[in-house]
Amino acid sequence: MKNTIKNNRLYIEIEDVCSVRNVLTKLNISKKQMGILDSQGNIFIGTNKARLDSVISVTEQLSLPLYTQKDLEYISTEIELEVVYEDEIILIVNKPCNILTHTDESKEITLQNIVDNYLILNGNMITCNPIHRLDKETSGLIIYSKSNLFKAYFDRELADKSISRKYFALCDNPYKKMSRGKIEVYLAKDRHNSNMYRVAESGKLAITNYEVIRNYSSYSLLRLHLDTGRTHQIRVSLAYRKHPIIGDNLYNKKIDENLKLQAYSVSLYHPLKNEELQVAIPMRLDIKNYNNG
Asked: Nearest-CA neighbor of 51 among 60, 62, 67?
């Protein structure tokens, strides 16, 4: 299939006679989203409205609305969005340390507010949702879906571990040798502190892969990637192994300005370009240049 985007609509040219439903299935559009498109009358073959069971021939063109319009609110803030990659359906941004990914019960500025500001300033009053999240203290790459057509697809890719996320971390108590390995633990909420997690057999499995990049006198630089995506997974796993992350005010008694944990790389399969998308950013300077002797 060949895809083009024009006037905020996705136009699809097919190779064989088939139903609209089959075309949307090949595009990895969820059954729920198909139902919404069908009920709202937003499916067209040429200039004519179509249904999911309508048949489309090779001489015809199918079109769908790519975006969901939304009334966004501009929130005044001095924090500017660092866009690392953007196309018609994907936005990848670099989240600063010490900012929430999205709203909780507090009223502080979140990354979602900053993303919304960016969309407003660029005249895009549309839904744009994160595919995954980072802890407030962690910096790095977060993937957003600009199109509800593909949100469920990205969610499935994340659940199926098809979206790769890699991290840099500085941890206390250096490893004795250059090594790599896997940490498998079960994580549960801490009964005594609702903001923390702990290793417990009653928890959910968390699998963290690590590689020691360099050892220093009192700390190590690690590269990590996740097989699961539990809250505080890297932080708790390393602390459990007696290598807490430097700057972790929850799991490390030593105080530092920022958590030395950065999501530096993401990769995923692009559903429209039909190819792997890989995005990476340089190591944070406070991690690269860290030296406490």
From this structure: 62
